[in-house]
Amino acid sequence: MRRALALIAALALAACVPPDPTAAPGPMRTMRGNLVLPDPSDPGRFEVFARAGDSGADLWCAASEFAERELRVPVNRRIYVVTPRGSSAARPGARSVVFTVAPDAALLAAAEALPMGLTMDVGRPGRNFLPVHGRTACRPLFERRFGPGFTVP
Fold first, then answer.
1. Quick one: DSSP state of residue 89?
2. Which of 32, 122, 125, 151 is most buried as measured by Cβ atoms within 10 A of its Cβ?
3. When comparing pLDDT for 17 and 43, which is higher?
């Protein structure tokens, strides 16, 4: 019994230790199930893999989650589409979008040239949002379909 309690205490304490901020981010599975792979050659770039039925908003949700949790971007740093949704170069047969939080001059110029819009599409290089905007696209896992006081017979 003491060993079990000691193990539980050790695991709880380990969960409280913050991750190393200097460590490079690794692959991540988002809360919605998207796989995100960081680009080892470019620290701000990462690829979000689409699941069946994912909309652009779902991919922005995954990109925002990765940028906040793994890259720890400040709230005012935008996320940009580098490569629109299409076939993945990293995983043949998969569909993905490449994003970055460190755009180069060409991507910033592409972003400036885009018409103003609020749709969360991932079809054009340069489309960008703040992480908080991307997180608003994250749908709850379970939707509440019944109002207060509703009873099932």
1. S
2. 122
3. 43
